[in-house]
Amino acid sequence: VTDLERRYRRWLRAYPLVYRQVRGEEILSTLVEAAPANGVAAKDLIYIGIHGLRVRGSLLVHRFGQGTLPRSVHSATLILVFMVVVNWLNAAFAHNGPKNPSSHLANIVVGLVFVALALMIQAWSRFLYAAVIGFLMITMALSFVNSDLIFELNAIVPLILLIVGWRRYMAAIPPAQWPPRSPRTVPS
Amino acid sequence: MQDIENLSEGRIRLRTGTLYAAFDRLSEQKLIESAGEEVVEGRLRRYYRLTELGSATLGAESRRRVSISKEAIRRLGLAGGLS
Fold first, then answer.
1. Span A155-188, pLDDT tens digits
2. Helix (H, G, I), strand (E, B) or coil at B34
3. Is A51 within 8 Å of B17 when comparing Cβ atoms?
4. What is the ipTM of this complex?
5. Residue among A26, A51, A179 whose CB faces B46 most closely
């Protein structure tokens, strides 16, 4: 294995494993064959990085809405969505007064965070699901230290529901595959 | 990739990432398919070919572009237009 090949192989990690298993070796061959005489082509690496991220995104998008979430996980998502609505309504209509001018912005940001958490749960990804639980746990831990945190005890209900639904959620995730099984039809 | 660069007289330089993005898209649309693979000097080389749908689509697109070019040449009043 040449140094050139080793370097390209490292960059191929931008692609998800399932994609690398299908296309990894041929992409590597193409990269090595097309490499300039003086070593690695930096532009190639950038394009590989971008394409790798696009493939990852595409796999994630295909997993959205794949099936029915376990009831507890579904409820946790609904609570998060409810918290989004509450925060944004608060941002739109609450009058916090001149002493607390930043709180509208904080409500908008918190609403966006909850949107992200709800989407991460819906993505049917083990990593993202664990990340949501981790995030809520950290939030809970911090809320005990600093009671001024916006999240406070709001996080505990979805956290418990997500932990309860962990096993069923994990069991329901289909194995990742490339090409992703797509409900979309081929244009004719 | 070298062919594309030569055909376009150096104007288009396809990068590996771009090439495989195109392969993914064309495969998904069933316009190309794998036509076998071989190991050359210890490296995997996979070949692709146009499917019937791919040939038909490429033909239609080529005719459309020729037609647009003809129309452009006619409107510009250029001599020696496409016949």
1. 889 999 999 999 999 988 877 788 876 544 334 3
2. strand
3. yes
4. 0.79
5. A26
